Amino acid sequence: MSNRSDDEWRAVLTPQQFAVLRQKGTEPPGSGEYTSTFDAGIYGCGACGAPLYKSSTKFDAHCGWPAFYEALPGAVRRIEDRSLGMDRTEIVCSKCASHLGHVFRGEGFATPTDERHCVNSISLKLAKE
User: Which DSSP string corresponds to 25-91?
Assistant: First the structure.
């Protein structure tokens, strides 16, 4: 896990990236670069570049944010999140602990895991194949 200070993160991230990745913000639905992108490649962490998701696990959930049904093994860490009066599961990058989004289960999507990793586009960087 990264031991960077907030000042060090601010030096390498845009203010928008810092707000989402380090302060657990959320970008407005439908506004992200990767919401409707289905190019082949690997999605990495927008903060540290660690590989997180294969493009083959991305699906259109019509939720306003990129959706994946499965992360690369060990790439994300799940954290119980009871903020905003809800029980949710936050996902963060295993390498640098940057906020990615949340995981939702049992929504009935036709995916192998019945999970939706709802990830902020600004938390991602696509390395196209």
Answer: --PPTT-STTTT---SEEEEETTT--EEEEGGGEE--SSSS-EES-PPTTSEEEEEE-GGG--EEEE
Residue type, 117: H
Active-site residue flag, 118: yes
Q: Which secondary-structure segment (H or E) carries 104?
A: strand 99-105
Of 45, 93, 96, 118, the active-site residue reads 118
Q: How far, in Å, CA of 22 to CA of 44, rounded?
A: 16
Query: Is there a contact between 109 and 6 (Cβ–Cβ < 8 Å)?
Result: no
Sheet of 76-81, strand order? 58-59, 67-68, 115-119, 99-105, 88-93, 76-81
pLDDT, tens digit only, all 129 positions of the chain: 568 999 999 999 999 999 999 999 999 999 999 999 999 999 999 999 999 999 999 999 999 999 999 999 999 999 998 877 778 899 999 999 999 999 999 999 999 999 999 999 999 999 999
pTM for the predicted model, two decimal places: 0.93
